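Project standup — Tuesday

K.O.: blocked on the structure for the chain from last sprint. Re-posting the sequence here as requested.
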Amino acid sequence: MTNIPVYLTAEKHHILIVGATTAAMAKLALFMDTGVRLTLVGHGALDAAQSAGLTPALTGNQTLTIQDRPFDQDDLTDKSLVYIGVKDDITEERVLRLASTRKLPVNVIDKPAKSNFITPAQFTRGPLQVAFSSGGSAPVFVRRLRSSLERILPPSLGVLANAAGNMRGRIKSIIPDSTRRRLFWDRLYDNAGRYADMDQSEVEKLVIEAACNHRVGATTGQVQIVGAGPGDPDLLTIKAHRALQQADVIVYDRLVSRDVLALARRDADLIFVGKREGEHGVGQEGICRILVDEALAGKRVVRLKGGDPLLFARASEELDALRANDIHTEIVPGISAYQGIAASTQIPLTDRKASSSLTLVTGHLKDGAFKDWARLSGEGQTLAIYMGVKGAPRISAGLLNQGVSPSTPVAVVENGTRANERRFYGTLAGLPELVASNKVKSPALLLIGDVVENALDLNQFEHESLLRAQNG
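H.V.: unblocked you, prediction finished:
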């Protein structure tokens, strides 16, 4: 970081702007409503300010003084910051030299090499203020960041933030419990759009009503069962990200990546309940007990599961336990492994020429048996198998014994969508050797079907081998 981010208390400072250029007027407009004292100096300054609608008579800003005359060194007296926006190089150098002699922070507008401070791009919603800077390295990125916030945060958030500031003490008296109060503010933020086109008094009245309703509501917390996706944090939904930021407790599985966990609120309690084959940890009953106990303690709980929480994730058992205790529960879907891997490998799971159906199954069957899998795979079909690494020999043998072609293309993708993703391609007959020789480990997904031939990185040799095998 090459810049020091600092906010100055506006009413305690006095800014000098030298010049009558468009750039100088832009800086003047930026500070007009902050409460800072402003002095604008320069030949033609009054006309420029009038044209921009920035004179005290037009704005009612009594902290602004305009001097329509050339700069004088006495203009630097008692100033905190100096902006230079002139077209005359001689004047620019003079102001810069005199300001530097007095050790004043000076900004030559649009000339960072001559400046000793910068003014970052800003985004505001009422009292909420965010500043963006790349130190001049990536101004387009700064603009995109600001526009992203402008797009997703409604203007009514500013009015709501003002209301929150005015009523903090009153809300604290209505909701004395700190955890419940934080949940209240979180929910208010999430629903900021409801307060659009309302004035301050209307918003404050509704906020008080919401606080009273929150106080008399259920005493328990809530549980959100959230899909963490296959590992890439960029694949999280906005709602899942929000849940991680608001959770008091996060109960997470082994398949949840560290990059996803890094998005959690810093002071949230993280409880690992991951399972491995032969190592069940706290077990499913223990997981259910943790969820219920934390929610009954008034906490906001996130049950974080890899992929989508309703797909091969035993969500039904957790839902039964939560419903039995009348705990408010919400499910936030996630991108499952088959979707993320199809995207990263660019394998279309259905294709007009090769596949009209997609079937998802788990390779980890309770009795270890494979029944009627031939109807799920073969010509015109795509089969995605979760948790199938250890059972690859049985899966291959079962499908072959039921008549599926040995030359059916297969993809094995380990750690799909993550930085350490590995991909291997072969045929159904060679599936066991493909897994064994490459030492594939879970989590991995098996994709079986002709659509595999569309994979982005299937090399030409493998592609020709598959075609030769299919042609007999």
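K.O.: great, moving the ticket to review. Residues 463-469 have pLDDT under 50 and may be disordered. The two ends are 62 Å apart (CA to CA).
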